[in-house]
Design goal:
The structure holds two protein chains of two kinds. Chain A has eight helices and 21 strands. A six-stranded mixed sheet of chain A has the order 6-7-8-3-9-10, with helices on both faces. The longest helix of chain A has 18 residues. Chain A is elongated. Chain A is α+β, with helices and mostly antiparallel strands. Chain A starts with a strand and ends in a 21-residue tail after the last strand. Chain B is mainly alpha-helical. In chain B, 73% of the residues lie in helices and 4% in strands. Chain B has a two-stranded antiparallel sheet with strand order 1-2. In chain B, strands 3-4 form a two-stranded antiparallel sheet. In chain B, helix 1 packs across helix 12. Chain B is flat, with a radius of gyration of 24 Å. The two termini of chain B are 43 Å apart. The chains are: A alpha+beta, B mainly alpha. Chains A and B meet through strand 6 and helix 2 of A and helix 8 and helix 9 of B.
Chain lengths: 372, 285
C-alpha cells in the first residue's frame, strides 16, 4: 500500500517560491502524470517526495505514514532521473543491483532480481557494460531497471524519455503503461510531452509556476481545459483561438464567425455579452457544402498530410487563420474556396481577460490544489 | 601537401627539441655532475667527456664526506628518510582531514561555509617567515619544537588547503543526482560518500595528494627553523655540503638526484591516474 499525499507543500529557494502551498493526493496503484513547462516545479516536487530535498512547509505522507522528516534511504521509493544519473564507475549490472544491495539481499537473490528486470527491459545483453559504453536508450532502460528492481511501492519517474530518440520514445510510450500496471506500483510521472501524459496518466496534474492549474483525467484535461494555456498545451495541431462575443437568440447561445451565427450546445449563460475567446479543436471542424446551416466560407491556404490525418490551414473572410484536421481518406478540400462547419458541442469558451474557461466545473482551486 | 607536412614535421621536431633541451639541461647537467669529482666539475672549459665516479654517492650513503680539510660526518640518508616520513605522514593526515572536509564544503552549504573554506585557503597567503616567529615561540612553549608531530602539524599549512580546495572542486563536479540516486536506492549518506563520491573523485584526490606531497617535499623554511639536524629533511640537509673547505658540487648533485627520485617516481606512477582523471570529467550522468 503506497498512496501518496502532499499537504500544503511550500518550497522556496532564497526569495523565490518554487512550490506554493501545493496539495495533491495519489491513490494506491494510480499513475499520476505531472505535466507542465520547465520551471513549473515538477522535478522539485518529485525530489521532495524522494526525500533528497526538504520542504519549507507542509507534510508528505507515503502509504499513510508521515515521511516529511524521514531520510531518502528509508522512504522505500524508486526513482528514475531525466539525466539517468547512472554510476559511471559501475557496470550496468552493478548499477541496477544497488537498491538490492542496500536491502542486504543474498548474491543469488541480487543476480536473479537484476536479471529478471533486465530481461523485462531488454538489456540483458549489456549488463556487463559500463554506462559510457551504453547507447542512450540502454542508459535510459538501465536507469529505469534500477528504479524498478527493488519493486518499490512508489515509483517516481522524472521525464525518463526526455533524452532518448523519437523512435525509442514511441516504443516506450507503448510499453511503459503495461510495465507500470504489471508492477501495481503507485507512479508519479513527470513529462513535458502531452502525448506521453495522455498515454500514461490515469490522471494528469497540469502545473505551472509552482501550482497545480488543473487536475483530472486525460479526457477531462483535453475536453474541459481549465484555461487557454492548458487548452493550448494539449492537442496537435494546437487549438484554434478566436475572439468572439457570444449572444443569444430563440435557438440559444451563438457566436458570430465570419458573419455566420454558430450555435453552441451547453454554452454557459454567463458568457453572453462578454468578450470571450472561443477554442475550436482542429478535429471539431469539418468541411461542408455551402448550403449547410452554419457553413462558414473560407479559403484553403495550405494542406499538410500527416499520414493518419490531414491538417488544412484555411483563412476566413476576416483574414483569421484556422487549422482544420480530418482523418486521412475522408473528403475535404485542398485548394480554393470551401466551407467549414463547427461542432457546437466541443467548442470551448474562455474569458478574454483572465483566460479561464467560462463555466469550468472541474477547475482547480488554486490555493488547495484539490479539484473543486 | 606532402612537402608542407614534412616541413611542418621538421619544424615541430626542432621546436620540441629546443624546448626539451631548455627544460632538461639543468637536470641532465646535475645528473652528470653527480658522477664527477669537484676537480672535473670546476675545469675550465667544462667538458662533456669525463671518467665517471660513484664516490659522491658512496659518500652520501656511508655518511662520510671527504674534504680537503678532512672527513666530515653528514646525515644525508637520515635527512632523506626524514623527508619521506614527514611528507608521507603530512599528506596522509591532510587527506584524512581534507577529503571529508572538502566533501562537506562541496555538498552542504551551511552558514559560514564559504568563510571557513576561504580562511583555510588564506593560510597559504601568509608569508611563511611571518608565521614562523610566533610559531617557533609557541612550539617551544608547547614542547613541539624539533618533534615530528610539530613538523607534520606545520606541514598541514602547506598540504591541507591545497587538498581541500582541489578535491572540493572534484566533488562539486559529480552531479548531485548520482548521489541522490544512490541514497534513494536505500544507502546511507556515508555509504554514498564511500561508494560513489570517493571513487568518482579518486583521480582528483590522487592529483591533490601528489601535488601536496611535492610541496611538502620541497619545503625548506619551516623545517629549517623548527627542526634540528636529526629531524631535518633533505632540503635543509643539503646545507651541510657548503663546508669550510668549499662547496661540494659533486655531492650536492648526487644529493639532488637522490632527493628528486622519489617525487619523480611518484609523478610517473600517478600520471596515468591523472590522465584518467581528466578523461573521467567527460562522463555525463
Amino acid at each position: 500500500m503506497a498512496s501518496l499525499e502532499l499537504r500544503n507543500i511550500v518550497k522556496r529557494y532564497k526569495s523565490q517560491t518554487v512550490l506554493d502551498n501545493l496539495s495533491l493526493t495519489v491513490a494506491d496503484g494510480e499513475t499520476l502524470v505531472l505535466f507542465g513547462p520547465s520551471g513549473a516545479g515538477k522535478t522539485v516536487l518529485l525530489r521532495l517526495v524522494a526525500g533528497v530535498i526538504d520542504p519549507e512547509e507542509g507534510k508528505i505522507f507515503i502509504g499513510g505514514e508521515d515521511m516529511t522528516d524521514v531520510d531518502a534511504e528509508f522512504r522505500g521509493v524508486g526513482m528514475a532521473f531525466q539525466n539517468f544519473a547512472l554510476f559511471p564507475h559501475m557496470s550496468a549490472f552493478d548499477n541496477i543491483a544497488t537498491p538490492l544491495e542496500a536491502k542486504r539481499s543474498s548474491q543469488g537473490a541480487i543476480k536473479a532480481g537484476v536479471e529478471s528486470v533486465a530481461k523485462l527491459l531488454k538489456i540483458g545483453h549489456v549488463l556487463s557494460h559500463k554506462p559510457r559504453a551504453l547507447s542512450n536508450g540502454q542508459k535510459q532502460r538501465t536507469a529505469l531497471a534500477r528504479a524498478l528492481v527493488g519493486s518499490p511501492p512508489l515509483l517516481l519517474l522524472d521525464d525518463p524519455l526526455r533524452n532518448v530518440d523519437a523512435k525509442l520514445r514511441f516504443e516506450m510510450r507503448l510499453e511503459l503503461p503495461r510495465l507500470l500496471a504489471d508492477r501495481g506500483a503507485t507512479v508519479v510521472y513527470v513529462t513535458q510531452d502531452y502525448k506521453e501524459a495522455m498515454a500514461l496518466g490515469d490522471r494528469i496534474a497540469v502545473m505551472s509556476q509552482g501550482v497545480i492549474r488543473q487536475l483530472g483525467t486525460p479526457e477531462q484535461i483535453y475536453r474541459e481545459p481549465a484555461n487557454i494555456e492548458i487548452a493550448r498545451l494539449f492537442g496537435d495541431p494546437t487549438i484554434n483561438l478566436l475572439d468572439v462575443k457570444p449572444a443569444r437568440d430563440a435557438r440559444g447561445v451563438y457566436v458570430g464567425l465570419s458573419n455566420v451565427q454558430v450555435h453552441l450546445t451547453d454554452a454557459p449563460e454567463t458568457a453572453i455579452g462578454r468578450d470571450c475567446i472561443i477554442g475550436l479543436r482542429p478535429e471539431a471542424l469539418h468541411f461542408v457544402g455551402d448550403n449547410e446551416p452554419g457553413a462558414i466560407p473560407v479559403t484553403v491556404e495550405a494542406e499538410t498530410p500527416l499520414n493518419e490525418k490531414i491538417v488544412t490551414l484555411v483563412r476566413t473572410v476576416r483574414g483569421r487563420e484556422i487549422l482544420v484536421s480530418r482523418p486521412a481518406g475522408t473528403p475535404g478540400r485542398s485548394e480554393g474556396k470551401a466551407h467549414i462547419a463547427v461542432d457546437g458541442k466541443s467548442a470551448l469558451l474562455f474569458d478574454h481577460a483572465s483566460g479561464e474557461r467560462i463555466g469550468a466545473k472541474n477547475i482547480v482551486n488554486l490555493r488547495s490544489g484539490e479539484a473543486a | 601537401m606532402e612537402h608542407t607536412s614534412l616541413l611542418e614535421r621538421i619544424l615541430r621536431g626542432a621546436a620540441l627539441t629546443l624546448v626539451v633541451i631548455f627544460f632538461m639541461f639543468p637536470i641532465v647537467w646535475i645528473f652528470m655532475m653527480s658522477f664527477q669529482t669537484n676537480e672535473t666539475i670546476l675545469r675550465i672549459p667544462p667538458q662533456l667527456i669525463f671518467e665517471p665516479t660513484l664516490a659522491n654517492y658512496t659518500a652520501l650513503i656511508t655518511g662520510k664526506l671527504m674534504t680537503a680539510a678532512g672527513t666530515l660526518d653528514i646525515a644525508f640518508m637520515r635527512n632523506l628518510w626524514n623527508s619521506v616520513f614527514l611528507s608521507v605522514t603530512s599528506v596522509a593526515v591532510s587527506l584524512l582531514l581534507g577529503v571529508p572536509a572538502a566533501y562537506a564544503f562541496a555538498r552542504h552549504k551551511f552558514r559560514g561555509s564559504e568563510d571557513i573554506a576561504f580562511t583555510l585557503l588564506s593560510f597559504k597567503f601568509a608569508p611563511a617567515l611571518l608565521v614562523l616567529l610566533p610559531l617557533t615561540l609557541y612550539f617551544q612553549k608547547l614542547g613541539l619544537a624539533n618533534t615530528y608531530i610539530g613538523l607534520i602539524w606545520v606541514y598541514q599549512l602547506i598540504c591541507l588547503p591545497l587538498i581541500l580546495w582541489i578535491v572540493r572542486g572534484y566533488f562539486e563536479d559529480i552531479p548531485a543526482d548520482i548521489e541522490y540516486a544512490y541514497r534513494i536506492g536505500g544507502h546511507s549518506w556515508f555509504a554514498t560518500f564511500r561508494k560513489i563520491a570517493l571513487p568518482l573523485a579518486g583521480p582528483g584526490i590522487a592529483a591533490a595528494g601528489l601535488l601536496a606531497f611535492i610541496f611538502a617535499w620541497n619545503n625548506f623554511v619551516f623545517a629549517l627553523v623548527l627542526a634540528s639536524a636529526d629531524k631535518q629533511p633533505v632540503t635543509v640537509g643539503a646545507l651541510a655540503f657548503i663546508t669550510s673547505s668549499g662547496i661540494q658540487y659533486g655531492q650536492i648533485s648526487a644529493a639532488i638526484v637522490l632527493s628528486i627520485t622519489p617525487t619523480l617516481a611518484l609523478a610517473l606512477y600517478a600520471q596515468r591516474y591523472l590522465v584518467e582523471g581528466l578523461s573521467l570529467g567527460a562522463v555525463k550522468g
